[in-house]
């Protein structure tokens, strides 16, 4: 194995004092293109079109959007509302904007807001490092694991959530093989997770989403490890579409199921998963692959991009505040209440 010793080389969201540079996730892995956002509206657009994506990363980007607005002297209230509406499911977006708003309400100027956004970004990276250690400790040495979507450096301030646990697990010899589901329709697994894993020299194989149950049946994986976009007060977890069926298959086959997310993804104001808004995106994302139409003209499609995994299918929720085994409302309350 040609493992990169640091397993942590990508920073996809970079603040440069007067602009936010983003590694365009629509273009990976074919092209590594960076572009600059100089206004909050450009940040909103980047979030909407998934140029920047992943729950923690969109919260961080939105915080920098507020800084751009504050530096240019435009009224902040409409900017906060526009950024908040960019995507509905990942609560990290709303959390970051609420944190920026509380500083604005306390009279913070543009420089103070810049320090706050930097703190949000730095804290996310530190949480990922800690979760990596906590999550990896749950895994028996020599295990194979399956992950879904992209939860790595691209989706966070760096290192990753579920992918952070995988990075730490590989480093510690606890994980020896990673399977990544391709994650139709946007292919976050195929395009982004495989890009991160191969760059880090981590043994990884892509699987079709529809191969997951077959993989588990043959005893190939010990853990399914995923991230989250919102964790409700009872532990129900919204994540990328397809996560729920992985949790059902995992329970059926005796495979353990781990959710890894910072506390900024926990939403104690939402009682359970039924109350989480699931983003519906355009049918065209499903009707074509790589911009090429694959379905007969005139066909329609239903494209929910997240689903909710009930808490009782989750063996462990790993946050930087600790590990919750078999999560339920009272355990969530004890840690996050
Ligand atoms: O639509 P996306 O690509 O933003 O969805 C991302 C996911 O579902 C991730 O699993 C989640 O945000 C956690 S990222 C650390």
Overall description:
The protein has 337 residues and is of the alpha/beta class. It has two domains: 13-127, Four Helix Bundle (Hemerythrin (Met), subunit A), CATH 1.20.120; 129-336, Rossmann fold, CATH 3.40.50.10470. The chain is 38% helix and 18% strand. It has eleven helices and 16 strands. A seven-stranded mixed β-sheet has the order 6-5-4-7-10-15-16, sandwiched between helices. The protein has a four-stranded mixed β-sheet with strand order 11-8-9-14, with helices on one face. The longest helix has 27 residues, at 110-136. The radius of gyration is 19 Å and the shape is globular. The model is unreliable at 1-5 (pLDDT under 50). 5-S-methyl-1-O-phosphono-5-thio-D-ribulose binds at residues 53-56, 90, 149, 151, 155-156, 161, 188, 227-229, 239-240, 305. Substrate binds at residues 53-55, 87, 188, 239-240. This is Methylthioribose-1-phosphate isomerase. It is an enzyme of class 5 (isomerase). Pathway: Amino-acid biosynthesis; L-methionine biosynthesis via salvage pathway; L-methionine from S-methyl-5-thio-alpha-D-ribose 1-phosphate: step 1/6.
Q: What is the CATH H-level superfamily of the largest domain?
A: Translation initiation factor eif-2b, domain 2
Strand content: 15-25%
Number of helices: 11
Overall pLDDT metric: 96
- Based on the coordinates given, report the CATH architecture of the largest domain: 3-Layer(aba) Sandwich
The hetero molecules present are: 5-S-methyl-1-O-phosphono-5-thio-D-ribulose
Estimate nothing, just give the exact number of structural domains.
2
Q: Could you tell me the number of beta strands? A: 16
Point out poorly predicted stretches.
1-5
């Amino acid at each position: 194995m040609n493992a990169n010793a640091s397993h942590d080389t990508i920073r996809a969201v970079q603040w440069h004092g007067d602009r936010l540079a983003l590694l365009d996730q629509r273009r990976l892995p074919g092209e590594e293109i960076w572009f600059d956002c100089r206004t909050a509206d450009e940040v909103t657009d980047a979030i909407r079109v998934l140029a920047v994506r992943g729950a923690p990363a969109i919260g961080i980007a939105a915080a920098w959007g507020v800084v751009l607005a504050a530096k240019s002297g435009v009224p902040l209230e409409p900017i906060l509302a526009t950024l908040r509406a960019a995507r509905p499911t990942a609560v990290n977006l709303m959390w970051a904007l609420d944190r920026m708003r509380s500083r604005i309400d306390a009279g913070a100027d543009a420089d103070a807001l810049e320090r706050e956004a930097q703190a949000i970004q730095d804290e996310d990276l530190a949480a990922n490092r800690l979760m990596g250690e906590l999550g990896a400790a749950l895994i028996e040495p020599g295990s194979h694991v399956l992950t879904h979507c992209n939860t790595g450096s691209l989706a966070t301030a760096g290192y990753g959530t579920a992918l952070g646990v995988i990075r730490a697990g590989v480093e510690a010899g606890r994980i020896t093989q990673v399977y990544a589901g391709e994650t139709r329709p946007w292919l976050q697994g195929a395009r982004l997770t495989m890009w991160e894993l191969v760059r880090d020299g981590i043994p990884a194989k892509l699987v079709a989403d529809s191969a997951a149950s077959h993989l588990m049946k043959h005893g190939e994986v010990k853990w399914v490890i995923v991230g989250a976009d919102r964790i409700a007060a009872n532990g129900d977890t919204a994540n990328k579409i397809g996560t729920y069926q992985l949790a059902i298959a995992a329970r059926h086959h005796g495979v353990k199921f781990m959710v890894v997310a910072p506390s900024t993804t926990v939403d104690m104001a939402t009682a359970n998963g039924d109350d989480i808004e699931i983003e519906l995106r355009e049918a065209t994302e499903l009707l074509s692959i790589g911009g090429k139409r694959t379905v007969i003209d005139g066909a329609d499609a239903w494209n929910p991009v997240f689903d909710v995994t009930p808490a009782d299918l989750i063996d462990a929720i790993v946050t930087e505040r600790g590990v919750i085994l078999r999560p339920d409302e009272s355990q969530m309350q004890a840690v996050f209440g």
